[in-house]
Amino acid sequence: MEVGAALETLNDEEFDDHVARLRLELLTRPNATAALVDAFAAIQEAAYRTIGQRPYPSQLFGAIAVYHGEIAEMQTGEGKTLTAVLPAAAAALAGIPVHVLTVNDYLAARDAENLGPVYRRLGLSVGLVVQDSSREQRRAAYACDVVYCSNKEIAFDYMRDSLVFGHSDHALLRHAARLKCDETMDRALTLRGLHFAIVDEADSVLLDEARTPLVISGTNQRNRQETKIYAQALEIADAMEEEVHFHVRTLTRQLEMTALGETRTDDLAASLGPAWAGRMRRRELVRSALVARHLLNQDAHYLVRDDKIIIIDDNTGRPMPDRNWEQGLHQLVEIKEGVTPTATWDPVARMTLQRFFRMYHHIGGMTGTAREVAGELWGTYDLVARKIPTNRASRLEYLGAIVADSITEKWWRVKERAVHLQAQGRPVLIGTNTVGASEQLSEVLTAAGCVHRVLNARQDRQEADIIAEAGAQGAVTIATNMAGRGTDIILADTVRDAGGLHIILTELHESARLDRQFFGRAGRQGDPGTYEIIASLEDEILVRNVPRIAARLAAMAESDYRARVAIAVMRFVQWRMGRLHTRTRADLLRMDEYEATSLAFAGRN
Ligand SMILES: Nc1ncnc2c1ncn2[C@@H]1O[C@H](COP(=O)(O)OP(=O)(O)OP(=O)(O)O)[C@@H](O)[C@H]1O
């Protein structure tokens, strides 16, 4: 009899005995194929008995890839969340601590809760670490067999642990502390090593998020003078003219001062006292002030909430209350927005996500979008991306693109579509790039009497609630990137017959992978679904990056042809941005490795 079929006949007690025997076998032979087959069969059975879902053959293929340290490329909605349980539980049954890493707290909490019963049925413990978890809660969670956590949380916990060892954060030292049963040291640490990581949305975590190094701040360097200096820097910045004194490079999010700009800085700062005497420092200060003024916008890059600046994560659209910009930039934005300036902090530890993940003994992962980054995943992490076939054929249909002349006209078109589809009883999910845009569109829909909900960094606390309703008959939901990766919208039965969820993307993201992830909220698990793009010639991606082409397109009459050309240009900008980001990550990793080796003998601070 087939292994799985035999397990179905067991009663609960017999199944428990079977799992206990299996655990012993795995502890001694974790890599034996027969033992792994038995383990997967038992986990499948446990999933069926607890949450009523039996992993499909496609999920088994994915699970085998992940277990063997590969990235399983599975289309959106194919069930990567359940797929991860198979390698995670199999490794945990074999005694290996497992970290299942997601892109955000909402998904970590959702998955730990939904899948907890499967692990517990197998006698395994499950922990959860989110931003609000205390140190004690973290330590308890990391002691579990399987931990669900967002990538940033665990990387920061690792860095904090490293600080306990001063600069000498060598793995061997940590083992030495354990061997000596150094109780104090052990109590100071939260993690118990980096063994097996299963990375969900692997391209986002391992690449997109890895563009900015993680920094831990230490001692408070508050200086009364500081606020005054930052305010002066903003005043000087306001006396500068774009294209004359500085250039903004939107593609790379960089700002360069021209020679004229530097001289102007020197002139204006001449009478401001000794704090402005250093030439390098004063130019850097003014450059930062220009960045605060021209590159960082309210409701796009940050929110102002309760007299605080709250950064919005570029990749996930989520508010990050614990994050700060470095080197005075945060304070400059605070002064610009008129909120009480906070103190500046000195960085005491810095690490890239690349270096962090390369320290794991074993990594596997899943994503819906690995194709175009397969080379980099291999180059940086030695990870192979393996394409897994879908369980059922996809019924997701692309309806084409409309590119309106202006943003106002774009909102009008989106409203027309939403009202039309709502009347047909179909749910509609509309994607915007910023909090500001989601609110503008919301006003247009409200004025037209179209009932809808908004999910953005301001409404993050109602996330689960909004998502639970987004698949209902006639539901219209406007969402930023927060409803991108991982979000699972369950359709009401009547909606399936009406054609499923319809997605409207109103602005292309900075990467085509993000667009595909957003479209992937529809047509999941073989459900029907449609998607379209309604963009405009005034969108940032065109106006900021290729202004001359945008102007030429604006001179053409609106047609399908113009829309196709405009979308092709936007895709070209995305491709160029992707290449730049790859280069940034390579440079960052090189620097990080250089610093790690050159500072190896620096000793404690
Ligand atoms: N074997 C199964 N049997 C029944 N339902 C399943 C099975 N596997 C997954 N599902 C359901 O399919 C839906 C999509 O799963 P999930 O959200 O894990 O997809 P995903 O691949 O992670 O998508 P994304 O790429 O968007 O993150 C969920 O509602 C989940 O409960």
Describe it.
By secondary structure, the protein is an alpha/beta fold. The protein has 3 domains: 3-213 and 353-387, 3-Layer(aba) Sandwich (Rossmann fold); 222-343, SecA, preprotein cross-linking domain (Pre-protein croslinking domain of SecA), CATH 3.90.1440; 395-573, Rossmann fold, CATH 3.40.50. It is built from 25 helices and 20 strands. It binds adenosine-5'-triphosphate (ATP). Residues 53-56, 59, 74, 76-82, 368, 485-486, 488, 490, 520, 524-525 line the site of adenosine-5'-triphosphate (ATP). Monomer and homodimer. Part of the essential Sec protein translocation apparatus which comprises SecA, SecYEG and auxiliary proteins SecDF-YajC and YidC. Residues 406-567 form the Helicase C-terminal domain. Belongs to the SecA family. It is found in: Cell membrane; Cytoplasm.
